[in-house]
Design goal:
Helix content of chain A: over 70%
Radius of gyration of chain A: 22 Å
Order of helices and strands of chain A: HHHHHHHHEEHHHHHHHHHHHH
Organism (chain A): Devosia psychrophila
Number of helices of chain A: 20
Helix content of chain B: 55-70%
Shape of chain A: globular
Transmembrane segments (chain A): 20-39, 45-71, 107-132, 138-160, 167-184, 204-223, 315-337, 357-381, 393-426, 432-451, 463-488
Distance between the termini of chain A: 61 Å
Strand content of chain B: under 5%
Largest sheet of chain A: 2 strands, antiparallel
Structural class of chain B: mainly alpha
Keywords (chain A): Membrane, Transmembrane, Transmembrane helix
Number of helices of chain B: 5
Largest sheet of chain B: none
Strand order of the largest sheet of chain A: 1-2
Structural class of chain A: mainly alpha
Strand content of chain A: under 5%
Shape of chain B: flat
Largest interface: A-B, 84 and 91 residues
Protein name (chain A): Putative tricarboxylic transport membrane protein
Number of strands of chain A: 2
Order of helices and strands of chain B: HHHHH
Oligomer: heterotrimer
Domain DUF112 (chain A): 20-438
Chains: A mainly alpha (495), B mainly alpha (176), C alpha/beta (317)
Number of domains of chain A: 1
Number of domains of chain B: 2
Chain lengths: 495, 176, 317
């Protein structure tokens, strides 16, 4: 049990008052900045990089870990309360969480998100502590064909749960796919669909689309149909806590979300998007209350939030054990290591055990800290909804604008916000589902790049797409998702 | 998200709600137009590639073609009298009549940053946007809204600029 | 009242953060925070400050995208003729301008100093049949398409290094099966799991994995062997190729001559300062200094060389 004693030494480091203070500071900063749409942990840590000049490495990394987890908590808060997901990872949370908040169960939604994040974060940290080297190896196992199969699985599973009108659902999906092709094509270096606008060369900023469709579209829509009668103010009931029923319905999604999120976070092209989407569809399939989905099902918050946090912890594994940055956040953390003249990887564990184990121990501490911060705060956050509607919606628009402006500083993006916001308005009036647009935008480019990489490496032979056991299995499951409901219908019809 | 089917008769009784025109062919036209834009752009891109087989143009072509086909299907659906039930949101009912002045005020609020963000900075932009949205939701305490908006804008600017975000100057036009 | 209460915690955090200095000099960092160009600009000015060469405030602007062309276009529009406006850029910008038919012309800017370089290495998996660069090139020659090679973005420095290697070995550049990867991490995993026959990337991204015994580095694009990396150069292996991912500083177009001379001098002083030596060491950057007008000639040469190779690769007309 050498790991255990090393971990205990780590706690000795993490629990020093100064380091506790940095963990707290990081958690608060992360939560605060996570609230602003689009400003995620990567940008926040990048902005904090200058502290590496003055702060000791252990303390700095403990703070960064706090930012990383804190931003996840902060992002779920805005998704749930004001329907403004800032990152792809909290998009699925908004779907059910906001419905819950609007029906007076905001505190329960925030609580299941916070506790789910805590559970996922803690399990993931335990896995990080004891199984890191083994988990890290899966990064080398995944090939482009496997990634492609994974995106196909996410696509088809989402398509099945899409909405009432197939045609409108697919229109939304294809609009997302088209948006996803905007910008320089990674494989050939050619600009696509940019029409000479240089601001579009880097593609459509996901934040802009997310914020515009969810927040701006909603503001325009509600403004045009606002019921300004006195009962518009929904009394906030059941603020305090999750009910017994909520607990019963939450714990399994937490665990399943963790199981999905953690390994995918460790993959170079994994990210938090696919695990949160898969978690959402999985919960929807497994739920005993599928009719509640779309109207505020707690499983739809618990699962994706756990998956999101577990994925965030997952990125630390290849970073710490191999020196392999698998996400933007990890790349920034790597830059921070380099600022100290340190190189993460297997040698870091022997050369700087105090730093590594202090950081790992601080993840436990940070998780507890965030839970303590967020559970009581949930009640306060929910009170945001007690702000009179005119000022509440006004505040949402201002924050949406600041998020977009803060990420890019581009007037073109602000104009995109208006245009896409208008589209969001039209989609609400004519009942087009919103989520498929974002799924197309997020998964389309991933699927395309991995498909083309797989084919190029296999010199155009399509058999390469099922050449690994994993890709064959995933593609089979994806096909079953599509075909089984149709077959069942046929069988029923002929019976 | 999906609506319950049994909402439809209610809407019919309410006189069609906000959707006055029962046949919004323009919706399908927009979808087809978007598809054509993609197809036009894809036309100038190579569809194939040396080793992958799939070139940079293929996905654009697929997206464009898909939109055109789906637009045509939607056109047929509309011609057959497809119903569009506006989504129910909190604070808003799909069957409510559209309040166009309020809509355009909110739209103006979203447009304000495009015009003013660079020139007169975030705090004043936030103040104007805030007041316009509040107004579109029926708030008539314009002075208070201006004050609230200014507070939100100034606090957000100070906070996030200190954290290192680039939010532009406080009042660029005056040189701050 | 509730509204103001909600803002209170934000105000508390605001007081936690420190203030920003008053700015006189505008520096464009045409990349997102945290990356190489961002680091180059910020570290260089920190070192200028530490060495006492230039201690006044600096205002950094990050505008990322498209190999720096978006940031430089903005810089040109806003800062032309200004006395104290500088921008960071590098080898990748040269290719990106050509690839994206960007309206920017690097000759319009005033070349202040080339500062650093990172050399590239080519590597194969530890269990690869290729043990030397010559063997890899022979394999490429025998079946170019079957040996997929990964690296950074299409038309980027990695791609150009491979194209130059192919040219030196009489392999048609258009035949190369070059697969751009989204990140160095994906190149490494692709090489290790056999998707890619070889990968090209900066030394810092590969060395770690060579030390772990996962990949084998076959060659480096530097003029001489690197300290701490026992690997032959491309030249030693018989291919006359020398490429670096260099980074430097540009002055605004039309910067007055007096100011220009001052900035060239300041960066020359920086290059000799111990503060800068420390930065180079911790960041793992190679010193690659070239001042003023000579740097201008170098940029023009790179422009011609990269333009020609992109044409050969079928990426530019």
């Amino acid at each position: 049990m050498q790991t255990f004693s090393l971990l205990m030494d780590g706690f000795g480091v993490a629990l020093q008052p100064m380091n506790l203070f940095y963990a707290l500071l990081g958690s608060i900063l992360g939560t605060a900045i996570g609230i602003l749409p689009g400003i995620g942990p990567a940008l926040t840590i990048a902005l904090l990089l200058p502290v590496t000049i003055t702060v000791a490495p252990t303390s700095a990394f403990i703070m960064f870990a706090g930012v990383l987890y804190g931003a996840m908590y902060g992002g779920s808060t805005t998704s749930i309360l004001i329907n403004t997901p800032g990152e792809a990872g909290s998009m699925m949370t908004a779907l059910e969480g906001n419905k819950m908040a609007r029906s007076g169960r905001g505190a329960a939604a925030l609580a299941t998100a916070a506790i789910g994040s805590f559970v996922a974060g803690t399990i993931a940290t335990i896995l990080l502590t004891f199984a890191a080297p083994a988990v890290a190896e899966i990064a080398f196992y995944f090939r482009p064909a496997d990634y492609f199969a994974l995106t196909v699985l996410a696509f088809t599973s989402m398509a099945v749960v899409m909405g009432t009108s197939r045609v409108r659902g697919f229109i939304a999906l294809f609009i997302g796919l088209a948006l996803g092709t905007i910008g320089i094509d990674e494989m050939s270096g050619q600009p696509r669909l940019t029409f000479g606008v240089s601001a579009l060369l880097d593609g459509m900023e996901l934040t802009v689309v997310l914020v515009s469709l969810f927040a701006v579209g909603e503001i325009l829509y509600v403004a045009s149909r606002y019921r300004s009668n006195s009962d518009a103010l929904i009394p906030i009931k059941g603020q305090a806590w999750m009910t017994k029923e909520d607990w019963k319905r939450s714990w399994k999604p937490w665990l399943r979300g963790t199981a999905l999120g953690f390994p995918m976070g460790a993959l170079p092209a994994g990210g938090s998007e696919i695990p949160t989407m898969l978690s959402y569809t999985l919960e929807r399939k497994l739920s005993k209350h599928p009719e509640e989905f779309g109207h505020g099902a707690i499983e739809g918050v618990a699962g994706p939030e756990a998956a999101n946090n577990a994925a965030a912890a997952g990125i630390l594994i290849p970073l710490l054990t191999l020196g392999l940055p698998t996400s933007a956040t990890a790349a920034v953390l790597l830059a921070a290591f380099q600022n100290y003249g340190l190189q993460p990887g297997p040698f870091l564990f022997t050369s700087n055990p105090q730093l590594v184990w202090g950081l790992i121990a601080s993840l436990y501490v940070g998780n507890v800290m965030l839970l303590v911060l967020n559970l009581p705060l949930a009640g306060i956050w929910v009170k945001l909804l007690a702000i009179p509607r005119p000022q509440l919606y006004a505040g949402i628009l201002v924050f949406a604008t600041i998020g977009i402006w803060g990420v890019s500083g581009s007037v073109v993006d602000l104009l995109c916000m208006v245009v896409i916001g208008l589209a969001g308005y039209v989609m609400r009036v004519y009942d087009f589902p919103i989520a498929p647009v974002l799924i197309g935008l997020i998964l389309g480019p991933m699927a395309e790049v991995q498909l083309r990489t797989a084919l190029a490496a296999g010199q155009g032979n399509p058999a390469v797409l099922v050449s690994t056991p994993l890709s064959a299995i995933l593609l089979t499951i994806a096909m079953l998702f599509l075909l089984v409901p149709i077959l069942l219908k046929r069988l029923k019809a002929s019976a | 998200m999906p609506n319950n089917l049994h909402d439809v008769p209610v809407t019919a009784q309410a006189g069609g709600g906000g959707i006055a025109a029962p046949r919004p062919f323009w919706l399908a036209a927009i979808v087809i137009a978007l598809g054509c834009v993609c197809l036009y752009a894809a036309f100038g891109l190579p569809q194939g590639a040396r080793y992958a087989g799939i070139g940079p143009g293929l996905f654009v072509t697929v997206a464009g073609a898909g939109l055109v086909v789906l637009g045509l299907i939607l056109m047929v659906q509309i011609a057959r009298g497809e119903r569009f039930q506006a989504q129910d949101a909190e604070d808003a009912s799909g069957s409510e009549k559209s309040d166009w002045p309020a809509f355009f005020t909110a739209l103006a609020a979203a447009l304000v940053p495009v015009l003013t963000m660079q020139a007169i900075g975030l705090p004043i932009t936030a103040m104007l946007s805030f007041t316009l949205v509040a107004r579109s939701f029926g708030s008539r305490k314009t002075l208070m809204d201006l004050v609230y908006g200014a507070i939100v804008g100034v606090v957000a600017w100070v906070l996030f600029t200190r954290l290192g975000l680039q939010l532009g100057g406080f009042l660029p036009i005056a040189g701050f | 009242m509730r509204f103001r209460k909600a803002l209170l915690p934000l105000a508390v955090i605001a007081s936690l953060a420190s203030g920003a200095a008053h700015a006189q000099v505008n520096v464009m960092l045409p990349a997102n925070p945290g990356g190489g160009w961002d680091g180059t600009g910020r570290q260089a000015f920190q070192a200028l400050n530490d060495a006492g060469i230039f201690t006044e405030g600096v205002n950094f602007t990050n505008t990322g995208g498209a190999g720096g062309t978006i940031g430089l276009a903005e810089f040109q529009g806003a800062q032309t003729g200004k006395a104290d406006a500088l921008a960071v850029f590098g080898a990748i910008t040269v290719g990106s301008i050509i690839l994206n038919s960007s309206p920017i012309n690097l000759a319009d800017f005033r070349p202040v100093a080339r500062l650093t370089a990172e050399y590239l290495v080519i590597a194969v998996a530890e269990n690869s049949p290729y043990t030397t660069l010559e063997e890899l090139v022979a394999g490429l020659k025998a079946d170019t398409g079957a040996n997929a090679i990964g690296g950074g973005s299409a038309g980027g420095v990695d791609h150009i290094a491979l194209a130059l290697l192919a040219q030196a070995a009489d392999i048609p550049v258009v035949d190369l099966n070059y697969i751009p990867q989204a990140s160095g991490a994906e190149t490494v995993t692709g090489v290790v799991n056999g998707t890619l026959a070889a990968g090209i990337s900066g030394i810092s991204e590969f060395q770690q994995f060579a030390d772990q015994g996962r990949i084998r580095i076959l060659g480096v694009t530097a003029a001489e062997r690197k300290e701490g990396l026992d690997v032959p150069t491309f030249k030693e292996a018989g291919y006359d190729v020398e490429v670096a991912n260099w980074r430097g500083i540009l002055g605004a177009p039309g910067m007055p001559d007096d100011n220009y001379a001052v900035w060239v001098d300041r960066f020359a002083q920086l290059n000799d300062s111990p503060a800068w030596t420390t930065v180079l060491k911790t960041q793992g950057w190679d010193q690659f200094f070239l001042p003023g007008a000579e740097f201008g000639t170098f940029i023009a040469d790179e422009n011609a060389r990269i333009g020609a190779i992109l044409k050969d690769a079928g990426l530019a007309q």
